[in-house]
Amino acid sequence: MEHIRTTKVEQVKLLDRFSTSNKSLTGTLYLTATHLLFIDSHQKETWILHHHIASVEKLPLTTSGCPLLIQCKNFRTVHFIVPRERDCHDIYNSLLQLSKQAKYEDLYAFSYNPKQNDSERLQGWQLIDLAEEYKRMGVPNSNWQLSDANREYKICETYPRELYVPRIASKPIIVGSSKFRSKGRFPVLSYYHQDKEAAICRCSQPLSGFSARCLEDEHLLQAISKANPVNRYMYVVDTRPKHRMQSWRAIPKDIGRIILNAMANRAAGKGYENEDNYSNIRFQFVGIENIHVMRSSLQKLLEVNGTKGLCVSDFYSGLESSGWLRHIKAVMDAAIFLAKAIMVESASVLVHCSDGWDRTSQVCSLGSLLLDSYYRTVKGFMVLIEKDWISFGHKFSERSGHLDGDTKEVSPVFTQFLECVWHLTEQFPQAFEFNEAFLLQIHEHIHSCQFGNFLGNCQKEREELKLKEKTYSLWPFLLDDQKKYLNPLYNSKSQRFTVLDPNTVSFNFKFWRNMYHQFDRTLHPRQSVFNIVMHMNEQNKQLEEDIKDIESKIKQHRNKQTEDVLTKELLNSVHPESPVLKTSLCFKEQTLLPVNDALRTIEGSNPADNRYSDYAEEFSKSEPTVVSLEYGVARMTC
Amino acid sequence: MEFAELIKTPRVDSVVLHRPFYPAVEGTLCLTGHHLILSSRQDSTEELWLLHSNIDAIDKRFVGSLGTIIIKCKDFRIIQLDIPGMEECLNIASSIEALSTLDSITLMYPFFYRPMFEVIEDGWHSFLPEQEFELYSSATSEWRLSYINKEFAVCPSYPPIVIVPKSIDDEALRKVASFRHGGRFPVLSYYYKKNGMVIMRSGQPLTGTNGRRCKEDEKLINATLRAGKRGYIIDTRSLNVAQQARAKGGGFEQEAHYPQWRRIHKSIERYHVLQESLIKLVEACNDQTHNMDRWLSKLEASNWLTHVKEILTTACLAAQCIDREGASILIHGTEGTDSTLQVTSLAQIILDPRSRTIRGFEALVEREWLQAGHPFQQRCAQSAYCSSKQKWEAPVFLLFLDCVWQILRQFPCSFEFNERFLIVLFEHACASQFGTFLGNNEGERCKLKLQQKTMSLWSWVNRPSELSQFTNPLFEANNLVIWPSVAPQSLQLWEGIFLRWNRSSKYQDEAYEEMVNIIEYNKELQAKVNVLRRQLAELETEDRPRQSP
Question: Is Cell membrane among the key words of this record (chain B) (predicted)?
Answer without folding.
Answer: yes
